[in-house]
Specification:
Length: about 425
């Protein structure tokens, strides 16, 4: 039995199980308060939608100190008959194991991939351990496109508040779409379906001692699936509601991690993105419906002040690689009254590409470079908030579509300067 990082007792358990049809993995770290709901949803999904399939739930844990794995072992479905459409003919297995390797979500996923490969599973899914909005239907929606329609990767599609997911909306989605030509709306959504073949493919990649293992796994999985030519689709899951992130946490850390991972993937696939033109829609499964969303408060004044402070303190850094006309526009924006504050789509797309080029050409320390993006991102977010304050969800989505088209048009900046030395002229 294979398994580079699997413990002996897990290998013994896998020898007993031998093979399985469906695997759902739940990575965790100190999620005892929320994981029982997720485990029940997964088990109910197995019972309701896959009664004749051999299913396994795998909890890959990062060394929780709050009894998370114990909760997984103890959690069952109290009234199984009430949700069954058919009598279950195949058993459901459950494994909870600490993972080895660099602490992080990617290492947790590696263990899940290895168990999937060892059991020759046909279809897999991974779901976050702090989800409050997961339902049994999520399991069907993430797994069925693989089993019934031959897709290798199922990305999640959620409705989110217009001011939620701004890193995705303003950078990660537009960049991924422009570079690789496939419209996957939530490339870092966290809940994915994939084929057994896709899991085995991920294991062949030499990334498990890198930042991918720590925090870059979501964008890496999505980009690898697209760029390596696997069949990709999306499933509509409704709303994503999970544990609120610490509002006191430094936003620049997440921005640094996610954008850094996106830039790293540019280094892996230049032959793919250089020849990709435009983008195509991705098939969507599931019934799309309106959902109630929790409001998100924003402090525009503070955001614009953070941008102005960045212009004052970091302009000498940005001048190393940004074109003079963009530098001038940023200085002008910082001097504007709050009501007139605006960073246009075209300028924003160019800024991100020039940052990618600066990272590629190693113009300055990578961490300093990526962290210097924070006040620009906050300024762009403030501009977006002002632009959409009276917009409904459909209008906001159309504005994001406009931004994506700008990224596709401005991609020539990246293509023209990637193989040349230095920054902007």
């Amino acid at each position: 039995m294979d398994g580079v990082t699997l413990r002996d007792e897990i290998l013994t358990k896998l020898d007993e199980i031998r093979e399985a049809d469906i695997l759902v993995g739940i990575p965790s770290y100190n999620n005892a308060k929320t994981i029982a709901h997720v485990v029940r949803a997964v088990q109910t999904g197995f019972a309701k939608y896959f009664p004749d399939r051999k299913c396994i739930l795998v909890n890959s844990d990062g060394g929780s100190k709050d009894g998370t794995m114990g909760v997984v072992h103890e959690t069952g479905i109290p009234d199984l008959q009430s949700i069954l459409l058919h009598h279950r003919t195949e058993p459901v297995f459950k494994i909870a194991t600490p993972y080895h390797g660099i602490p992080g979500k990617g290492s947790a996923f590696r263990t899940i991939f290895e168990i999937a490969a060892a059991l020759h599973v046909k279809a897999c899914a991974v779901v976050d351990s702090d989800l409050r909005s997961i339902t049994p239907e999520w399991i069907e929606l993430l797994v069925k496109p693989v089993i019934d329609h031959g897709f290798d990767y199922v990305a999640p599609l959620y409705h989110r508040h217009k001011y939620d997911g701004t890193i995705t909306n303003s950078i990660v989605y537009p960049v991924t779409r422009a570079l690789y030509g496939t419209r996957v709306r939530q490339p870092i959504g966290g809940d994915f379906g994939f084929s057994g073949a896709m899991a085995r493919h991920y294991l062949t990649k030499d990334v498990w001692e890198t930042d991918v293992a720590r925090y870059g796994i979501d964008i890496w999985m999505t980009t690898t699936a697209i760029a390596d030519g696997f069949r990709v689709c999306q499933s509509f899951l409704g709303a994503k509601i999970h544990d609120a992130k610490d509002p006191g946490a430094d936003l620049s850390a997440m921005l640094h991690q996610v954008v850094g991972a996106t830039f790293n993937l540019m280094e892996t696939y230049p032959d793919i993105w250089k020849k990709t033109k435009g983008s195509v829609a991705t098939p969507v499964f599931g019934f799309t419906y309106a959902v109630g969303l929790e409001p998100i408060a924003v402090n525009l004044e503070r955001m614009i002040e953070r941008f102005r402070l960045g212009v004052k303190e970091l302009m000498n850094v940005w001048e190393l690689f940004l074109p003079k006309e963009i530098v001038a526009l940023l200085q002008h924006a910082a001097a504007e009254q709050q009501g007139q504050f605006h960073i246009p789509n075209e300028v924003w797309a160019e800024i991100i590409y020039w940052f990618a080029l600066a990272a590629h050409h190693k113009i300055l320390n990578r961490e300093h470079l990526l962290k210097s993006l924070t006040p620009l991102y906050i300024g762009r977010t403030a501009s977006f908030v002002m632009d959409t304050k009276d917009s409904d969800a459909d209008d906001v989505e159309e504005k994001i579509e406009d931004l994506c088209r700008c990224y596709e048009e401005k991609k020539t900046v990246l293509e023209t300067h990637w193989d040349s030395k230095g920054g902007a002229a």
